[in-house]
Design goal:
The protein has 285 residues and is α+β, with helices and mostly antiparallel strands. Helix content is 51%, strand content 13%. It folds into 3 domains: 92 residues, Arc Repressor Mutant, subunit A (Orthogonal Bundle), CATH 1.10.10; 83 residues, Arc Repressor Mutant, subunit A; 77 residues, Arc Repressor Mutant, subunit A, CATH 1.10.10. β5 and β6 form a beta hairpin. α2 packs across α4, α7 crosses α8 and α7 packs across α9. The N and C termini lie close together (11 Å).
Length: 285
C-alpha cells in the first residue's frame, strides 16, 4: 500500500511541533526533556522513515533525517544516544521498551494513559506474566535496583536471550524500567521498578476509553492530521482502538474526519481548503 501524501502545510506544522527544523535542534538533556513534555511521547532512535516524533530527528533538526548504517561513527546518532543516557539518569521522564518493543520516552502526564492500556496491575501479575518475568520481578522487589548480570544470576534466568525476553516483557507491562546505564568496567543497565520512579502517575486509575482518546489527542496535537494506520503504527495500538480514540475526538469537536481513518485538528481551519482536502482524499483512495 502506498503511503498517503501529507499536504505541505501539514508537514510544515509537524516540522514546528516535532522540532524538525534546523533552528530548533536539541543539544542538552534539559531541551530534550522539554521536547518530550511538549510532544507527550516520542521514540528514541527512529528516523524519517517512521511516522511520529523522534528524539533523533529532533537532534538532527531535519525532516528528512535518516539513520546511517554505521551509527557508532555518526555524530547525531551518538549525541542522541548520549542524551538518552542523561535523560535516563535524571529520571524526570519515563523511558522503556513499550508496545511492540518500541523504545519510547513518555512525559509524566502521559504515563497514566499508557499504563491504562498496557500496564499489568499487581493483582494480575501472577496470571498474566511468564514464569521468567516473575522470577526477575521477585528479585527486583527485594533489591529495588540491580545490574543486568547480577539480576540474571539472582533470578536464575541465566540464558541471555530468555532473560532479555523477560525484561522486555516487564518493560512492555510498565513494571520495570532502566534506571541507569554504566559503561565501566563494562557496559550494563541498572534495572528498577517503574512504581518507584513514578508512583503517583502509575497509581492513577484511568478508564480505557479515556486513555484511547488522550493518546489520540496527544498524537493529533503534534501531527495536525493523521492518516489511516498512522496512530496505530506510532503508538502500538490496534487499528480498531486507534479508530475509537480518534472518533472520540470527533464526537467532542476536537477533530474532524476528512476520510475514513483520516482525521485533522478542528482548529486548523486555515488548512481546510477544498483543493488540498480533495488531494488528500485522492491520495487515500
Amino acid at each position: 500500500m502506498r503511503r498517503p501524501l501529507i499536504p505541505d502545510e501539514i508537514e510544515e506544522y509537524r516540522d514546528s511541533r516535532w522540532q524538525r527544523e534546523g533552528a530548533g535542534c536539541l543539544e542538552t538533556a534539559e531541551q530534550a526533556e522539554r521536547f518530550i513534555e511538549r510532544v507527550g511521547f516520542t521514540t528514541c532512535l527512529t528516523d524519517s522513515r517512521r511516522p511520529g516524533p523522534s528524539l533523533y530527528v529532533a537532534v538532527c533538526g531535519r525532516r528528512d533525517a535518516v539513520m546511517p548504517r554505521n551509527v557508532q561513527k555518526d555524530p547525531e546518532a551518538s549525541h542522541t544516544w548520549m542524551l538518552k543516557d542523561q535523560i535516563l539518569r535524571r529520571g524526570r521522564v519515563y523511558y522503556g521498551k513499550l508496545p511492540r518493543g518500541k523504545a519510547m520516552f513518555l512525559a509524566p502526564r502521559m504515563i497514566p494513559y499508557f499504563n491504562a492500556l498496557w500496564g499489568v496491575p499487581r493483582s494480575e501479575q501472577k496470571t498474566r506474566l511468564s514464569n521468567n518475568a516473575l522470577a526477575v520481578l521477585r528479585v527486583l522487589r527485594r533489591e529495588w535496583e540491580m545490574a543486568t548480570a547480577d539480576l540474571r544470576a539472582k533470578s536464575g534466568v541465566t540464558d541471555r536471550k530468555v532473560f532479555t525476553s523477560a525484561i522486555d516483557e516487564l518493560q512492555a507491562s510498565m513494571i520495570v524500567v532502566p534506571s541507569e546505564v554504566v559503561y565501566q568496567p563494562k557496559f550494563t543497565y541498572l534495572w528498577g521498578l517503574a512504581e518507584e520512579r513514578f508512583p503517583k502517575e502509575l497509581a492513577r486509575k484511568i478508564h480505557r476509553q479515556t486513555a484511547l482518546r488522550e493518546l489520540a489527542r496527544c498524537f493529533l496535537d503534534g501531527a495536525g492530521l493523521t492518516v489511516p494506520g498512522e496512530l496505530a503504527r506510532v503508538t502500538g495500538l490496534s487499528r480498531p482502538d486507534a479508530g475509537l480514540g480518534n472518533r472520540a475526538l470527533v464526537k467532542e469537536g476536537y477533530a474532524v474526519m476528512v476520510t475514513q481513518g483520516s482525521y485533522r485538528l478542528a482548529n486548523l481551519s486555515h488548512w481546510a481548503r477544498p483543493a488540498e482536502e480533495s488531494a488528500l482524499r485522492s491520495s487515500l483512495s
